[in-house]
Amino acid sequence: MISRTTMRNSWRFILVLLVSLAVRTPLGAESRPPALDKLVPESIHDLRAIQERVKKVTAKVLPAVVGIRIGHAAGSGVIVSKDGYVLTAGHISGQPNRDADVLLPDGRRLHGVTLGSNKDLDSGMIRITDKGDWPFVEMGDAARLHEGAWCLALGHPEGFRPGRTPVLRLGRVLTYTDKILRTDCALVGGDSGGPLFDLDGKVIGIHSRIGEQLTVNIHVPIDTYRTTWERLVKGEVWGGRKRGPYIGVHLNEDEGECRIVKVDKDSPAEKAGLKPDDVVIRFGKDRVEDLEDLLMLLKEHKPGDEVPIHVRRGKKILELKIVIGRHPA
Predict the structure, then answer these.
(1) pTM of this prediction?
(2) What digits encode the pLDDT tens for the residues 252-309?
(3) Fewer CB atoms near the end CB (10 Å): N or C, the chain?
(4) Domain with 319 in it: what CATH number?
(5) Which residues in 14-29 are b (16+ Cβ under 10 Å) and which e?
């Protein structure tokens, strides 16, 4: 498994070289540089190849990265069709049929309307209602991603600012499932709904939320937009209404362990004796290696079930009993 430290050190080193991304060099059909597929750059030639690729990809996709304003809320998005369909996060688009401002990098303010959203996965869509052919980018295939793949996050941190182009962050893919994509691209408020690109200039994810750590952030895989496209276009809103199983812990977004960072007051976890910094290693009869393991196992239970949970606390291994609760409304 790729070391997170290795990935962080490598992309931070490369960021030093990427101080100027204003070059508008088209991304042609040239062969893919081998440096893009290496775990760690091996030479200055590799670094320059990555630098040039990032410049070209950024120049290609930048015109389609937009700011979004809906009432007092703000976020980011990306245009994926010339007739103006915009992908964003579900918590940005909110309910359908709301007026939205879509802000292009060149300063133009377009009118739009919110469409559907999947509250379970946090995917949302907006349509530009002004007439025109708009700059757009191609949707990629997140299922082809691999751990350690380079990626580019763009968005409007702290909100859209006239005269400032979308801000670029370079990073690597940490983990991927069909429902969640994690990278170490640093995100802040205002980036939500913005696009995550591969180094072929295709959208592979949409920024959803910031993790417990600045450099472990969550994106909605692009494939879920493709498979639910018609529902989003029709303005359907689904998910997020079920009050499912709940234990009341906040977990780290790091790979390799499932560490508790916070325990909700009066929650099943607090009543069971769980504490911050406990590392969950077994839930029921199954091993737990990371956050995803615990979330998947939790879905197999219903409120009222009593489940043994093993945690590592310092040098001790403790077995506790937890009664699954119902997620607060």
Answers:
(1) 0.72
(2) 765 568 899 999 999 999 999 999 999 999 999 888 887 777 887 887 788 999 999 9
(3) C
(4) 2.30.42.10
(5) beeebeebeeeeebee
